[in-house]
Amino acid sequence: MSMNDEHRARLRRFRESIDNIDAALVFMLAERFKITQQVGVYKSKYDLPPADPAREGEQIERLRDLAKTANLDPEFSEKFLQFVIREVIRHHESIRSGEQNDSRWS
Questions:
Q1: Sequence ranges of the domains in the chain
Q2: Sign of the Cα pseudo-torsion (36, 98, 55, 88, in order)
Q3: Cα gap 37→34, rounded to integer Å
Q4: Has residue 8 got a pLDDT over 50?
Q5: Nearest 5 degrees, angle CA 31-CA 78-CA 104?
Q6: Residue 99's pLDDT is what?
Q7: What is the pLDDT of residues 11-58, one digit of tens each?
Q8: What is the CATH code for 3-105?
Q9: pLDDT tens, residue by residue, 51-78
């Protein structure tokens, strides 16, 4: 096996692992959004606000701590969670206004 073949084989194994991790992330996010969708329906039913800044702050701090433990950049983890939170709030606002009837989250 030439060096080029060895490099390609090793890269292929790395990429297979990355692909598996990406798939797991997608399924985990899908599961998370199923739950947050139910939270949005609950909040709408009981006239609770779509956003909970205190909870969001706690979650961001918790994720930053987890990121440090995992040797992941806490800034990255915060940006990622803030992106997810914004999307969840958008869904909750859509539910509250009656605009969202998306079976993907049921």
A1: 3-105
A2: positive
A3: 5
A4: yes
A5: 20
A6: 72
A7: 999 999 999 999 999 999 999 999 999 999 999 999 999 999 999 999
A8: 1.20.59.10
A9: 999 999 999 999 999 999 999 999 999 9
Using alpha carbons, select from 96, 94, 86, 91 the residue that is nearest to residue 60: 86
Q: Is 48 exposed, middle or buried (0-12, 13-18, 19+ CB in 10 A)?
A: middle
Three-class SS string for 53-102?
HHHHHHHHHHHHHHHHHCCCCHHHHHHHHHHHHHHHHHHHHHHHHCCCCC
Tokens representing 94?
A: 């859509």
Token pair for residue 56?
């969001």
Residue 1, pLDDT above cutoff 90 = no
In this prediction the pTM is: 0.78
Residues contacting 89, CB < 8 A, separation 6+: 50, 51
Residue with tokens 């692992």: 17
Contact 22, 44 (CB under 8 A): no
